């Protein structure tokens, strides 16, 4: 153990005790907690074995706890999926989504006009748009193989969050860690989902690799509020 | 056509327009069509003459600037960020979470790693104290990734061990890697220690992946993934004891199930 952490045991305990959050990223940091721009979850996967597509799902907002923003896409919030295809951790491509008057508009995949903390909508590279769904999914499939969706969905994320908040602050009286079985705090919680499935040909080859040496897209999602 | 003739024709049209009851301020135009002069007005409901829209533009009143597209103008500034699930949640203290969300991956690693490592050790210290030991007695132990990456013969310490610094350095660059044209698995240790036959992962995140247990195993599982397994008087820290409860994930787009 590092000397600093030994010395800082009291501080460390304070840090642990001060954690207030819901994972995976649900509720999140003080500045975005409970806002319409709060990213609850993010998934990126090969949709079926052997598929030449990649699916991205971004979950915004959550009703897992009362009084959180939930239920309406904010037209001032631009959601951006960033894709690094050469391993330098700078986005080579972005896929953007933003709501207007009951529809979700998608743009990209395209090289962004600027990288980093600010963005503009790539209006010259429209991907398509889809009516924002109610409880029944409305899906748009474009001629180039892109599929689009936006609307409320059940959050599949599972975690015993309430026990977790106790686990990170153990005491002599409560030092047994998690319960087994635990209780899934997120059972039945909903979120506002944006889903886009893209042929890999639109994303192109990647020279980035993971620690196992496999070629990967390095991806992350941001929400961006209109200034 | 000579200029004088046009003048006369223009007056004739004015008269005609007036006689059919158009308002005085209606503009008029002329259009030559197969040598027959046809009358064109700015309120005939069709785009003709030199109009650039229906009854507007050219010699009519300017067309309203109407776009079928919504307005997407403006600059948007980053307010939230997410790569791997749970990382900001578990390893950032609350004051760092905002900083994390306003970071970019090319620089966040150096910014976040020291705090992540401190937090990881602080969790171990907290359990040491809660178990009646001293903070020195319980430390992070290099995890199963070392064996998976280096083979089972390494001792976890001398051959590229995934120690607290290595692990938090990887995690502090918070990106979700997804492999095109490969099956997606967040992480699966396969047959487990010591050989981890069939171990796969780091190819993305599906809706079903148990990312909390994976994270806990890497943070608290030690060299074989079962340290702190709830046995022998130790706390259960390698699983939160819950699995997937959503039963409505579909095999077709958009995959994520209907709302409750």
What does this structure look like?
The complex is a heterodimer of chains A (227) and B (260). Chain A is mainly beta. Chain A has one domain (5-226). In chain A, 11% of the residues lie in helices and 34% in strands. Chain A is built from four helices and eleven strands. Chain A has helices at 3-7, 9-17, 161-167, 200-203, and strands spanning 39-45, 53-60, 77-84, 93-100, 103-110, 118-119, 126-131, 140-141, 147-154, 190-199, 217-226. Chain A has a five-stranded antiparallel sheet with strand order 1-2-10-9-8. In chain A, strands 7-5-4-3-11 form a five-stranded antiparallel sheet, with no helix packed on it. In chain A, a hairpin with a 7-residue loop joins strand 1 (39-45) and strand 2 (53-60). Chain A starts with a helix and ends with a strand. Residues 1-23 of chain A have low confidence and may be disordered. Chain B is of the alpha+beta class and 260 residues long. In chain B, 32% of the residues lie in helices and 10% in strands. Chain B is built from seven helices and six strands. Chain B has helices at residues 3-19, 87-91, 94-101, 105-130, 144-150, 164-172, 211-220; strands at 28-33, 36-41, 76-82, 176-178, 187-188, 200-201. Chain B has a two-stranded antiparallel ribbon with strand order 1-2. Chain B has a two-stranded antiparallel sheet with strand order 5-6. Chain B is elongated and about 100 Å long. The N and C termini of chain B lie far apart (75 Å). Mean pLDDT of chain B is 81; it is low at 1-37.
Which features does this protein show?
heterodimer, A: 227 residues, mainly beta, five-stranded antiparallel β-sheet, 11% helix, disordered N terminus, B: 260 residues, alpha+beta, two-stranded antiparallel ribbon, 7 helices, 6 strands, 32% helix, elongated
